[in-house]
């Protein structure tokens, strides 16, 4: 159940269509399709949607972090905020990007995963510690800095922040899975 009526491309204003087309282009899909997820919420404010989708495009496709680490940070964020829709889509993308299914499953059930290397550890520790304490210790920060440099840490924190904003939009407006689909996060 969602608190907002679904948008169709035919009912969008010209500004909404412009932004919807930009969203589609950034994700490699054809303009004029269904507008869902956070974009279906954000398009109620086309200027906000335009700016937010631009940040999202960077966070998903242009950061210096490898895609599997981007998706790892996203699923940790989705788990923290218990965003069913975000989890469903990004868990699949994390696996497709090369994150082992065992790590994805451990995150899903709230278990500390067995990680393969220092880069995965740095993403997990920084993201999890931030959500657990709302701060990051010097040791955790230094470990992430060693793995990713300043630019990489800034981008990782940006990913966490952006997907927290996505989570807020999806949770507040109750954008949920289709009726009858089991909830992956408990």
Verbal overview:
The structure is a single chain. By secondary structure, the chain is mainly α. The chain folds into two domains: 53 residues, no CATH class; 102 residues, AhpD-like (Up-down Bundle). Helices cover 66% and strands 0% of the residues. The chain is built from eight helices and no strands. Helix 3 crosses helix 8 and helix 7 packs across helix 8. The model has no long low-confidence stretch (mean pLDDT 93).
Topology:
Blueprint (H helix, E strand, L loop, with lengths): L13 H13 L10 H6 L3 H16 L5 H15 L2 H13 L4 H9 L8 H16 L4 H35 L14
Helix pairs in contact: 1-3, 3-8, 4-5, 4-7, 4-8, 7-8
| Total strand segments | 0
* Proportion of strand residues: under 5%
Query: Regions with pLDDT < 50 over 5+ consecutive residues?
Result: none
The name of the CATH superfamily of the largest domain reads: AhpD-like
Distance between the ends: 18 Å
The number of distinct helices, counting runs of at least 4 residues, comes to 8
Class computed from helices, strands and strand pairing: mainly alpha
How big is the Rg? 17 Å
Largest sheet: none
């Amino acid at each position: 159940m969602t608190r907002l009526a679904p948008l169709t491309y035919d009912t969008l204003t010209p500004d909404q269509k412009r932004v919807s087309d930009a969203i589609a282009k950034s994700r490699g899909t054809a303009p004029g399709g269904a507008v869902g997820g956070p974009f279906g919420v954000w398009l109620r404010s086309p200027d906000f949607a335009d700016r937010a989708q631009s940040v999202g495009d960077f966070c998903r496709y242009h950061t210096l972090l490898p895609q599997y680490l981007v998706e790892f940070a996203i699923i940790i964020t989705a788990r923290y905020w218990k965003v069913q829709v975000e989890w469903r889509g990004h868990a699949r993308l994390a696996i497709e990007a090369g994150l082992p299914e065992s790590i994805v499953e451990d995150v899903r059930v709230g278990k500390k995963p067995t990680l393969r290397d220092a880069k995965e550890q740095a993403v997990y520790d920084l993201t999890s510690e931030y959500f657990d304490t709302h701060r990051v210790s010097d040791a955790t920060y230094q470990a992430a800095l060693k793995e990713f440099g300043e630019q990489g840490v800034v981008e990782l924190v940006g990913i966490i922040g952006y997907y927290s904003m996505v989570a807020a939009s999806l949770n507040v407006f109750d954008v949920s899975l289709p009726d009858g689909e089991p909830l992956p996060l408990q």
